[in-house]
Amino acid sequence: MDFEDEDIFMDIDPKILSEKDRWNKHDHDDLHLENVGMTVKGFECPSKHISKDLQLCANSLIGFVNNVLSPASCAVLNDDSNDYVLLFDFLFEKSTALSNNIHELFNFTFTNIYQLESSLNSQDKCGNSKKINQSILGFFKYMLSYVDNYLKCDPNPQESIVIIWNNFNQLKSSLKPLSLIGSTTLSKQSLCHQQFHVYFNVHLYYLLTCYKLLSVQNEKMNSTQFTQYVSEIHSDRETINVDANSLRNDILLVMIQLTELSLKCFNKISQPEDVYHLSPFKCDCVTQFWFILKLICQKMDPHKSNELFWKNLDIVFGLLENEHQEDIGEDSKTDVPMYITCSKPYLYSIWFLKHLLSLNINSNDELIQSPENLEKFIDNFDCTEKITKKLTNVDNISENELRTILTLLDGIISLKETCKPDIITTLWEYFQKRLNSNFVLKSTPFAYTLSCLNNNRSALEVLTHVEQLISFVRKPKSEENSYTLFLRILGMYLMKYNHEQRLWNQIKGRMYSKFSQSKLSTLTEQGIQHVSNLFILLFYIKGNQELVKIQTFLNIILTMKDISPTTREIVLRTNLTFILINIRNNVSLDARLLSPIMNILNENCDHPNKSNYEQVIKLYLLTVNDVFKESEDLTLGQNLLLGHWMSKILSNTKVSSNVMNIFYNLLSLVLSKLRQYQPIERDSQMGMYFSCILEHVLPHLRTDFNFNIDTMETMTEFLSELTLFTLSGGVNYKSETFQILNMLIVNTNVNFELKMNYVKCLISNEDMHSFSLTTFIPNIEIIITQCYLLSLIVSEHTINDSMGKYVEAHCLQRFRQNYAASVRSQYVQEQVLNSSNEETLKQFLRDINLINASITGTEARTQFHNEVNTLFSIEDTLKHVVVTYDKNNSATGKTIITNVFTCVAIIVDYIGGILYKKSKPNTQLQCYIDTLLLQFQVRNIDFKLSGNTTHALRVSFHIYVNALIKLEPVHDNYIARVIKELIQIYLPRLINKIQYETPFSFNRSFNEVESKDMFLLDMIINLFLRKKCKVSDKNSQECLVFLHELLNEYNNVDFVSRFIKTSLDILLNNLISLNEVDVCRNKIKTILTKCFTNPMVQTIPAVKNHVLIVLTKLSNENLAFSFGQYFQVLNFLLHSCCPGIVTEFRKNILIQKIKTVEMKRGVGEDKVLRNLMEQLDRNIKKVLLVRS
């Protein structure tokens, strides 16, 4: 910091002070003196955070400045009644201190500032920095007080004014620019904080002092006289002009420095959006200084309000853009820089304005003079409009920067009390030239939000986005692009000035003028989307008053040559959004709005091969669905949205399940809304809704076996709503109720799943409790019960409780009343919470059995059996289920097939005695067996079971066998034949070499009752194993595998004994007759070894006797001709099975049998037989020796 005028600022020496004025304060302790600097106001940050609120009171700096600038400022500046003032630790007379010692006092000021700056540069701690600051402030305040109290009284103040002005200007000019202060940290403890605020105070009090001097000058003489005086008295040295232009220039220079200060942070941002987290005000003192500059400008020209401030700010913004400034006076241009370096001048200007206009001024202090001057910043001089116009003329501005500017501009417009439409029209001129642009953001290149809607967005989503877009509480979204933000600015402006028709006329005139036919024909799909979004916004705010004009433009688009399907979809979405807006506003739908929509829809339905056929239908359906959801009044013409197009959709079998689900949901919604108005007359407006559905929907529904199962839930919901609507209509719709129930319940061609779910959905509705369906269909209770049974059998999920309660109340209860009235109290159905379908079915069957057991009369029992058989006549439906899901490789298919076979087996097991009557043809049990188990094709040896059926039978086969055995096959040839066929057909197929996840359940039929085991084992042995067979077949092998599994699972003595009794004869017979290489020989040996693994088996007399009988029998059959194989069997049994029994057989029986053979041959002893017996004897000795 250097002063050019060294004769003004010299080294400090106390001797230069006159003896009259120089007193040491320590020599005058008896005087009551107050240091002015300790009470004067200066810049001081009140907190660490930058505040948007300026709290003003008389004790605040701004309040102090405002009062200083007011005419009655003497009272503010005179804070004591002493004749002396303490400045820089020296005592002076108030009236003469400045006039006699001005150079010395300014030299003191310079020295203090220099001392503070030196401490900062040397990084030394300056313990008295705050005192230095207060001393300088004390001098500045005294100078203001001197001007007010003494200079105003001087009849010739010209020389004093020039000296004070020049000295103060010289001090100010010696300071560094504010932007060059080293540190950016402004904590109260830092030296930089003190230096920064000292510089601020110098500039502030310089401007205040100049203003006061200028006020004195204006009171004493005019500017011309003063200038002439200055040129005469000070012709020998250079001085500055003491006039208003000089002060204006000084204010401009301070504004430039403050701008450069904020640019230090701004120029460091990497992305435009970083400014959201920055403030142009380095601390609260900067904020206050800007406000003080506005105050001074107001005082300088009170008739033109803030014109000077905004004019200077406009010059500053021009310097950012490196523009030539014509408004700067010639004598001031040397001090003003040619330009200010700024990386993004337009972004900075809007960012700065946003923060400036956002400042709030809070003042309720009665001590503040002229409080009308303390208003917030108001841009009444089109500063914002000028910047907007400039930036829209720049071609290379990035999307990110423009987006950030528009976000800030949105805030500025909302802050301005009055805003001309120039900003809107300027922005429109920019964007209308770029409608075909994507406005892609670098950070999110594929997120276009409202300005680039994707084809899957519904009209409601568009409308919701528009509402959010112009919401006052909305927060900016990072993915929104510049065009979206322009729409928000436009929308917010129109909402604010909605009743200003003149402004709207100006805006729409500029907009609509750009939509000529030639202009619209140049638009791409993206451009049409942008125009569409604009129209939606305008219609949302202005409503039907702009419909005609908008429809004119949309019709031009629709009639363009080679219009793409996507463009038609955009126009359709636009019109559908108009409908939603009208419904929300409770405005009726008229032909002008509906006609273009229905034209597009019908044309689309007539051409189902179009690429966007489904997109258009889906868009329309979703919107109409939203229309009815939003509708509180159905008399606004919503029925016109339904029509012939519905039958076209139903007739097209290629429409996806997703679209059809939306369609059925729409119909359900319409009917549920209509039901609230029942009873409805056919010819009324409400009746027209139902008539439309009856005419265009019901005849075209596909309810047969080709029904699309993916639409099950929504379609049944619609059909139940339709039924409830006709039921609630009473006599007005009785014929329609009968028609619907017959079509869906009585009709046997209806898809079984559709019927089941329809009945379930219908019964589940609480409103059904007030209607009786038997009025229309007498046997409907039986049909509903059958649907209930089918649901239990087929459904993957637990059936809801409503159908069970219905069946309990209407079926079981009727059975109890008719057949078991005397003991009705014992039939209390046990309710099992969260029970499975299988358990629920068993409970139902147990109830049937209880009722059957309580019937005593033969006639009643026969009648009951007939009713139960009718109830369970569901085999045709089950057959269709099996055919449908048997080849389905999904988990669902596997589960359903398993459920069917298992549940039918349970039915046969629980009530087989009711479903079957001996010697009666075509009983219900026979129907089940023939339908599921003994079809014609399974008897073909080459027929292969599907994976689902194989799994199902492996799970349920034992239930079928156990159930049929309960029907006494010993006394019923049909039952015995059925069991035999089931085992013969399925045992080889279900016992496979492939390892299944689920074990073969047939094993569970054994080890229960001896007679049952003997019956089944005997049947299996005789079916698959033959005597005197030399070569085994595949079925024999599978049979042996199963028998081995049985022995592995049940190795107790009782079961093994039964097994030996039934199978030993044929097993040994096969062991003798089969070829040596046959695989079954080893399997038979394994089974026999397993039989005698437990030594206790051999000790059982019955087993021992049976083995001896079998061996004796075999010797009679094989000793004469197959003696070699026979002795092999004996040796095998000796070594591996039952040596004790074989030994006994040798001693007591075998020798006699050999002698018998020799006698018959008549040759004496047969050497071969004797040798084989001797070998057997040797083996017996070895075995006995080993065992001993």
Automatic annotation (TrEMBL):
Keywords for this protein: Chromatin regulator, Chromosome, DNA damage, DNA repair, Nucleus
Domain Protein MMS22-like N-terminal: 81-677
Record's subcellular location: Chromosome; Nucleus
Family matches, as InterPro entries: MMS22-like, MMS22L_C, MMS22L_N
Transmembrane segments: none
Source species, domain of life: Eukaryota
Protein name stated in the entry: Protein MMS22-like
Higher taxonomy: Eukaryota, Metazoa, Ecdysozoa, Arthropoda, Hexapoda
